[in-house]
Design a protein that fits this description.
By secondary structure, the protein is an alpha/beta fold. The protein contains three helices and four strands; from the N terminus they run βαβαβαβ. It has a four-stranded parallel sheet, with no helix packed on it.
Amino acid sequence: LTSVNFGDCKLLTDKGVTELASHCPGLTSVDFGDCNLLTDKGVTELASHCPGLTSVNFGGCNLLTDKGVTELASHCPGLTSVNFGDCKLLTDKGV
């Protein structure tokens, strides 16, 4: 499995993302847009288990902060496409 789309899955939590990442380390593209319950914990687990990610969409994930963005950037150097649109807690520090 290399690509998943869970966009608008409003009840998906960090636990689900962690399970997915631990069982699918070959993921390269993920879409978690508008998954409102995801936090930095889920993003950090995803990044640490799936370092080959090249495309991520976390648009509308309102609980994400600079910490999650920083973890993703440090663990996934091959990222070529990212979407953090409407993530209201992100600041210049995360960019």
